[in-house]
């Protein structure tokens, strides 16, 4: 997955414009982000980025930067 | 000797809970994402006082009448549920009385949730195959909504209630229930649990206090709790692996089956498992949009509905997998007998 695809996926999950997807942004600051949206993110990571995210890894995601780091850790995001 | 499911019928409570009603209860935005993920538009839910055994009695009476089966012929009854009438006696004994079964009929409960149908079908078919029993009724009935806090916006939109009756009898060799693969991961028991519901945590004033989590979901310790990510992760990984292992063990593949049925937990999850197993669209079947996830009654209701709609043909093969609370799972492979009857049951609404 490249950076543009990552931004587009996150914007889709968080139901915002791509301009709002910044590394520093907290997931919890997006109105749509709740326990169900977290599951949607889990599904999209699996489906779009081929990354299996464990429940503990999901719970540790606080910012968009954390999601990015997870994908890089799994070798699924182009630097 | 072989055993097969020779007939089915299901019964739904009359009360319909729509997405519009949920929008009023929780707010449109609050449930938009779960409704989108679950693919459920409305659910059938019990009203206070209506129990799983009431739905079960209605379904069983209708089924026995339609098939012109004397209740005295039933020699085995398994009631599979986690919402029985009492802690004791077994609800199967209550049903024995309500259905007018013979004193020679063996009756017992099987306490499992979403995975209950493959387990109960495996037990019943094994008892029939052993030669000791001829006509076994398996009843999967759940009123899971009675265990969910009405303000739990994570669980209310997903669930419904139902009862399903299956008759298991002897059949021609080479047909019927070909095999069952059953499994458990007890380390996940806390992921789907009603904490204050038995001896471990007795019910007190304290357990009746409402808890509001960080996302605004409300429940008490006397209501169902689900660790969504853990259950999702289990379903997306353990379940396809268990199905693949079962197929490999029995030297079969998805291509050997005409229909692949999965516990109707939610549409997104079911589709991801289908995708993982490479199940083509023509072998998929869904039944949750208008009924919700009925826990242990979900997978047999799916099978009964596929039968009603003519999606199951004589001589065809069906693979069914059910999974959830426990954590527990079961996979069932069925080859339908060449002389199987079409489903004749039309009424599904509860009538006392």
Structural description of this entry:
The complex is a heterodimer of chains A (79) and B (352). By secondary structure, chain A is mainly α. Chain A contains 4 helices and no strands. In chain A, helix 1 packs antiparallel against helix 2. The radius of gyration of chain A is 11 Å and the shape is globular. The relative contact order of chain A is 0.21. The mean pLDDT of chain A is 90. By secondary structure, chain B is of the alpha+beta class. Chain B has a single domain, classed as Thiolase/Chalcone synthase (Peroxisomal Thiolase, Chain A, domain 1, 3-Layer(aba) Sandwich), CATH 3.40.47.10. Chain B is built from 8 helices and 15 strands. A 5-stranded mixed beta sheet of chain B has the order 1-7-6-4-5, with helices on both faces. In chain B, strands 8-15-14-13 form a 4-stranded mixed beta sheet, with helices on both faces. Chain B has a two-stranded antiparallel sheet with strand order 2-3. In chain B, strand 10 and strand 11 form a beta hairpin. In chain B, helix 3 runs parallel beside helix 4 and helix 6 runs parallel beside helix 7. The longest helix of chain B is centred in the C-terminal third of the chain and has 22 residues.
């Amino acid at each position: 997955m490249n950076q543009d695809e990552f931004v587009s996926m996150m914007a889709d999950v968080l139901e915002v414009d791509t301009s709002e997807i910044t590394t520093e942004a907290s997931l919890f600051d997006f109105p749509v982000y709740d326990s169900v949206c977290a599951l949607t993110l889990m599904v999209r990571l699996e489906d779009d980025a081929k990354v299996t995210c464990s429940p503990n890894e999901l719970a540790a995601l606080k910012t968009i930067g954390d999601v990015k780091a997870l994908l890089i850790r799994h070798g699924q995001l182009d630097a | 000797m072989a055993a097969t499911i020779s007939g089915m019928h299901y019964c739904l409570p009359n009360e319909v809970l729509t997405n519009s009603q949920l929008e009023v209860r929780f707010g449109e935005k609050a449930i938009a994402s779960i409704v989108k993920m679950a693919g459920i538009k409305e659910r059938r839910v019990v009203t206070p006082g209506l129990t799983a055994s009431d739905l079960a009695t209605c379904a069983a009476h209708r089924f026995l009448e339609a098939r012109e089966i004397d209740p005295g012929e039933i020699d085995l009854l398994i009631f599979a549920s986690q919402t029985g009438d009492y802690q004791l006696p077994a609800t199967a004994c209550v049903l024995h009385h309500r259905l007018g079964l013979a004193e020679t009929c063996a009756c017992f409960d099987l306490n499992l949730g979403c995975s209950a149908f493959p387990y109960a079908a495996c037990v019943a078919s094994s008892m029939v195959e052993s030669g000791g029993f001829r006509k076994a009724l398996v009843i999967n009935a759940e009123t899971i909504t009675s265990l969910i806090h009405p303000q739990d916006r994570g669980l209310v939109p997903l669930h419904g209630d139902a009862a399903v009756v299956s008759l298991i009898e002897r059949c021609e060799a080479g047909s019927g229930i070909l095999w069952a693969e059953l499994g458990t991961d007890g380390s996940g028991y806390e992921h789907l649990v009603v904490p204050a519901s038995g001896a471990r945590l007795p019910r007190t004033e304290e357990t009746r206090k409402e808890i509001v989590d960080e996302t605004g979901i409300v429940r008490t310790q006397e209501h169902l709790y689900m660790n969504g990510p853990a259950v999702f992760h289990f379903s997306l990984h353990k379940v396809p692996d268990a199905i693949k292992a079962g197929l490999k063990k029995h030297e079969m593949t998805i291509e050997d089956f005409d229909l692949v049925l999965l516990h109707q937990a939610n549409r997104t999850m079911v589709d991801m498992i289908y995708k993982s197993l490479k199940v083509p669209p023509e072998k998929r079947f869904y039944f949750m949009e208008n009924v919700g996830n009925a826990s242990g009654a979900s997978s047999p209701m799916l099978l009964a509905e596929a039968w009603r709609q003519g999606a199951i043909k004589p001589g065809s093969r069906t693979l069914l997998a059910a999974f959830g609370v426990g954590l527990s799972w079961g996979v069932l492979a069925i080859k339908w007998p060449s002389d199987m009857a079409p489903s004749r049951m039309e009424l599904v609404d509860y009538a006392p």
